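Two entries, shown back to back:
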Amino acid sequence: MTTMYYIPSEERNRGLNIAFNPASYVHKSHLPSTLCEGYMHFDKFINVWLFSQFPCFNVCPELRSGEGDVVLNLIVDHWYDLLNAAPLLGAYLLRNKLLSSPALLMTNGELLSFISLPLSLEVRINETRECEDILALGLAIILQIGRHLPPPLIERLSLIFPKGRSVPDVSAESTAANINVFRMALRYAHNKL
């Protein structure tokens, strides 16, 4: 006997968009200028171009693992919030440095409220040069705690962020503390929109 699982339509649509409508989330820096200009900005053209240019779109990623994989479920459930959550994660990693420069924090109250949360982030920066790009650090953290994800999903994930960004080398595990900070960053990012 086959067991049927009910997947709510919102989840089903999000999964279909991630797999088959990359135009809904791709960062414009990955597109040629002719597709970014107003007269050619049609999702169908962009999707055809992306499928022809990126081999990751030839494989449909596994988007549901059930209850076991918290990181996969968080990423899929909050796919459209990842670009806004990454800088929050990066800023939390650099919170001691950011707290010593009040001018930046006075202009961004949301960033200040997020890095003031009493959370524990267990991440180590492995580079000798100092990295201050909070978006790149956040992306590095997401990629590290989600390094077990299917490669086609990771490739799609990289298309959300600006092209050519150097991702710093960090060490992070999928610990409860890191997942908690990631979950809070996603909530803050979602409420920002």
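entry 2 starts here
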Amino acid sequence: MSFRQCFIFIMILILPGPLLAAQFSIPNHNITLTYPDDWQSNTSHEKGSLVLGGVNLNKQTGLQFRMYHTKMTIENFIDWYVKDYIKQMEGHWQGSDMEFTQITKPNLGKTYYTTSFTYKQRDGTVYIIHHYFWPLAGKIFVILGGVPETEQLQHELKFDYVAQSVRFH
């Protein structure tokens, strides 16, 4: 093992991931996940809403949980979702420079698909937006996460940790 490999290995041991101590539960869909203990959670009680709830650090950094009822394949759904999301962000939210960057299929033990975007809000703030998708029987569970580009390194990994904590019971 070279010095560099050894140093990187030691850094990984010393620098643990973010503390995920709080639990969020969506009982009527049998979903649980864990999120950073310094974030706040909220649930949606609107009947028929696609938004189930979310967790956030502040008004700019957080995650929203959604459930879509669909008969589309996951690939067709993501294709539709990406186009619809861009239309919403550029239309309703009056953003610009919306750039779709990637779709990642499940790999390396992950059970979800992901997409990533960069987005410039009206006030010039650039956001990094991640979506995580789980196909279920007749439904697709989606986590939408957003963080200002200036705080990306501080919070983006937390999104991945939350996604990896999702459990369907």
